[in-house]
Write a structure and sequence with these properties.
- The chain is an alpha/beta fold.
- The protein has helices at residues 3-12, 46-58, 78-84, 86-97, 115-122, 167-171, 173-189, 202-218, and strands at residues 16-19, 24-28, 62-66, 101-104, 124-127, 132-135, 142-143, 145-150, 156-160, 223-226, 242-244, 253-260, 263-273, 279-291.
- A seven-stranded mixed β-sheet has the order 7-4-3-2-12-13-14.
- The longest helix is centred in the middle third of the chain and has 17 residues, at 173-189.
- It is globular.
Amino acid sequence: MSSKTRLDKAYNNAPIISFDDTSKFILFSDCHRGDNSFADDFANNRNIYFHALKHYYNEGFSYCELGDGDELWENLSFESILNAHKNVYLLMKQFHEENRLHMIWGNHDMVYRDPKYVEKTLSTYFDPKVGEDVELFCDINYHEGIVLKHTKTEQELFLCHGHQADWWNYLFWRWSRFMVRILWKPLNVMGIADPTSPAKNYKELIKVERRTKKWITENNNLITVTGHTHRPRFPEPGDIAFFNDGSCVHPRSITGLEIENGSISLIKWQIVTTEDGTLKIDRFLLEGPTPLIEYKTE
């Protein structure tokens, strides 16, 4: 199965979410939420992420998570991740209860492509305060891709994780998961990166991006938003419409894409120091806002 076939499949099977210029979306990916151990890359940024997500919840945004939200290669169970970052999941639950949560699976949480696994694992959790199981993400659905379609212009944005263009991490993810758990997790502590990850292997990153851009050009420059490589991308109108929201495990910062007022922006949240020495979490605009209609092809 080629990258083209995998991307075609993800696009053709993607549910369509209608939106207009009043709609607001925040797109994050590659949170890699772990168990708060030494190998949990998310732990360093969890306060930044929670503050940002709380902001978007209060401002009425819908949250689209573009895969690798949960780090299920390094960790054997979701329960340990939930216990480490319960405040994050309870906030995501609020999005879900208001139909504002849209989830995509990636290679590190590819087990979520099985609806039965999702139902068994994510529907409830044990709350020690009440001594019984309580609801978490009841009736949640994970998808390989999602299409946002503008109700007036009929313009489409295709969202997926992006590992469809990475044959090793799509077809042999179970082997990669085994290697990460047994070999790369302990070596990572010593600073040795996993060579199969495009986020840590520049040559693989370029190959993945090249395959994705080829698919986009073959599909009438369809706006495509991915994660996977952890490298933010924000094209100019007229270029290949290939966006990447970056990741939530950058050193001391997270990046994402906002869609608001019919425009798209690349943003970063990080901790900054004020003049009086106070630390605060702040949002920075990196690119945009650019009207989506400027990427529309006839």
